[in-house]
Amino acid sequence: MMKVQYSSSPQNDSKTSTFQHHRGYRNDKSLGDIMSLTGKFARNAIISSGDVCVNVLTDPVFSERASPFSFSGPKRLVKAAYSPETLPSVDVCVISHSHYDHLDSSGLKRLAKVQPKIRFVVPLGLARYVKDAGFDDVVEIDWWESDERNGITVTATPVRHWSSRTPFDRNKTLWAGFMIHFRDGYQFFFAGDSGYGEDFIETKSRLGSPNFAAIPIGAYEPRDFMKDSHCNPEEAVQIFEDLGAQHAVAVHWGTFNLSVEPMTDPPEKLREALIDAQIDLDRFRTLTHGERWDL
Fold it and tell me: How far is residue 178's CA from residue 181's CA, in Å, rounded to a whole number?
């Protein structure tokens, strides 16, 4: 079914019915490789970036664990800033990929009970998860495709990552970043999860620079294991420069442990990288959970 449904996508490998990056980046680590890391360090991670821009929600995660199970798996270290019941009214939600720290089915079911009319825009293959949670207004798009409604255009962009929810569905669904363009010309870019690559230069070339960006800075060690899918703070600064963003907020750190760097390292190393790059620290910030930044 996946082969028939998505064979027209340039990112879909017809031989394996899986999605791959067109630049040749591959993340083909075995389940054993992944389990050896999590077994040795007993860590995983989750990040919820919340409503970074008014009425736009990105990768909402409300559950206590980033896991298919309520009784085991990575547990939240910091309370979510919002619950589905206290979340402000949302117009558009994007979900970057299928990992449990970004696609929270239990949390989405709770959200659907209080805000069932949210418009979702997701990469190829993810609509069924969102619809199963109780939402009807769900659109799947491929990289460089757009969904435009009510003055808000959402465009999926390539990033360097992968997808999986079970040991048997590696890269059966697509992953993406998103550029969101508003009627007044304001642009917001959400990177989701990504290793560093040339995608961000191409995004700027095709879509222009964002006024504001959400860029991941955590879960990057051990480097040889993580570099293909998670940028480090120094690379996050390079992404910021590649995009030509005016301002950015650091995401994907400080909520759950995924990797081996200390929890305090990502913001400290981001600060060092910004100073080295001679970038004003007020342009690319880390926020405390629930903190609001008025630009």
Answer: 10
